[in-house]
Amino acid sequence: MQNRREFLINLGAAGAALKPVRDFALVAPGTNPAAAKGPGASPHGETPRVHPGELYHSPKTYFGACYYPEQWEQWDAARLDSDVKLMREASFNITRLAEDAWIRMEPLEGHYDFEWLDHVVEALAKNSVQTVLGTPTTQPPAWLFDKYPDLFSVTAQGQRNTLTRRYLFCMSHPALPEYVRKIVTAMAKRYANNPNVLGWQIDNETGWDTRECHCQEHCQPAFQKWLAARYGTIEKLNSAWGNAFWGMNYTKWSQIPLAPQPIPGDDQPNPGHILDNRRFWSDTVIRFLKFQIDILTEEAPRQFTIHNLAGTMDHFKMARHLNLVGLMSYPGSSTGAGYYDAQSMDTFRGYKDGNYWVVEQQGGRPGSRNEVPEAAPGLLRLWAYQSYAHGADGVIFFRFRTATHGGEEYWHGILNHDGRPNRRFRELAEMGKEMERVGRLLQGTTLVSPVAFYVDYESEGAKKGPDVTRFDDNTGDYYAAFKRQGINIDVTARGRDLTKYQIVVAPMLYMVNEEMVEQFTPFVRAGGTLILTFRSGVKEWDNSVTVQPLPGRLRELAGIEIDEYEPLIKEDPELHDAAIPIEGTGEPFAGRNSTGTIWADIVEAKNARMLAKYAAKFYSGKAAVTLNEAGKGRVIYIATHLSREFSDLLVSWLFRQHAISAPFAVPDGVDLSCRQKDGKKILFVMNFNGTSQQISLPRDYQDVLADRSVSGSVTLRPRDLVILSEV
User: Fold this and answer.
1) Sign (positive/negative) of CA torsion 23, 29, 34, 37?
2) Are 384 and 431 in contact (CB under 8 A)?
3) Distance between CA atoms of 77 and 67, rounded to whole angstroms?
4) Do 154 and 264 sit in the same domain of this protein?
5) Is 105:98 a contact under the CB 8 Å cutoff?
6) Which of 162, 325, 486, 693 is most buried by its number of CB atoms within 10 A?
7) What residues are paired with 197 via a beta bridge?
8) Which H or E run includes 703?
């Protein structure tokens, strides 16, 4: 899973003058300053140009680790030699370098030092390890803060940050683009023609809320300018936000604060204001990153761009500008089913509707405060294979050697602080030998899925009010119900083609616009099944509550109306453990009883038919699950959160309706994922249980890791996997 961690390392970095500045705070999304230039002569021979936003198809499967020689107290050639030999022993072929190293590359303004990085890249290349370089804008250097003290970001409480940790700078500062441009351009000119540099990671996990600045000097005017561009007139903004409520109408843009500031005991900020602030933050981050992508498109057109998407920016929108999306995967120490991490991987594959990379794969015990247990033997390997199974073409472990200083000195890498080979290294070195064979098999393969989960970042943003977040639907439970059936799952979004799927699941689609309705309607009428859950269609696109009967714009498609609703809470004396009894009235629930949790939409089935009903409280007998037939397809509305039993019944029934089947059945806690090319399937069967599991096979397969034919059945050891290739 993606780990929301706050790094405390204090490195540095900044830039020098080369060309007139472009202010990334003003560059319009989609603009490419390099578009007018031709590709020029290629120093890479036949290496093709990588076009902006085009999905990068990895020429081979990559396996490696992040490496940070800039963090050494002093240069150590013997240590570098020892490390790269160990990387070669582990069969690594990729590393990530330098995303925090601006001050090492530009220790004084305009004075660049790339010799150490040249040496590292060359030493790695001599051992068949290529490099992804990071643009080091994660942390501007101390000398830049000395020059511009107001470059430090400001917290939501109004406190100016200081040079105590990374990330604490203002992305809207007008001086910053010039320095970013200079360091990124200098790096690009240095390494664009280096065949050992495969691509560029842009900044590092830029979207975290902890990086958001609330300064009045730069961010507040930028927000006001963003609002003026969005609404055109102050009257339209007042209308969209409903500012007549409580007499909050603005008369000029300069009156609008950056975001509603929290007041102890007050949980009633304006939802329209909150959502637009989130949209502004997302656009600010995307412009900051795209500014760098445009430079690299011009200066290094034959190297790909990637970013480890994080936080609350619109990942689908950002992914359109990248060649690859990068996942950070830190499963922790769980030996559970692995479904939560699989969902994250499938989501990242969905951002560009294609394969992705893992730029930080757990390589040791994470957690800067010693709060996570050690991963049991086999788990690091199993987690990494799960990344490949769900569509990764590259896996880069974080990190090669554990840091001896700074805020992550206990965020363990593959090697401990002493740098000697250990159990983790030996486990991954064995995997490296396996990957020499597995990697060749995976080249050109991807995943094909009959089911997609529908995600919308703006709708998710509308849920961030305190009255909504507490009662959000648990998407992971429904994802697990589908994964237990052993099938692949995609993640899709607005503007995507839904016709390649048979089932689309859209849990708690809180904010809905007409574009979504026009996307769903032909999908359903052509024979697809759309699953909606409670609190869908509640909001309009400005985050105001719809005046239509619920579920708003989805009402006609769902064939229902909702007049009343309530949270299911422990304080309710009529409920046991905040769960309401429900009874099945039609297939697949007929004759069965269960419970619903989190929320209850009290549904009137209009054109829809009832599949389950509530069996308690004043709405006993009202619909809890409905099905509406529309054209050749159907819409299922789930008005409460279903139990595992009812979720599994529903998924199994839908698979029968759509004639969907997995290659074979798998027990709980076993993740089955299938990559394929030209119709030939490669099956990853991964056992996250602490006990052995027996799998019955309907046909003969080739066991890739054991290099033998298997038939009848196969036994999975605890925390182990088999990779089966069709013969």
Assistant:
1) negative
2) yes
3) 14
4) no
5) yes
6) 325
7) 131
8) strand 701-703
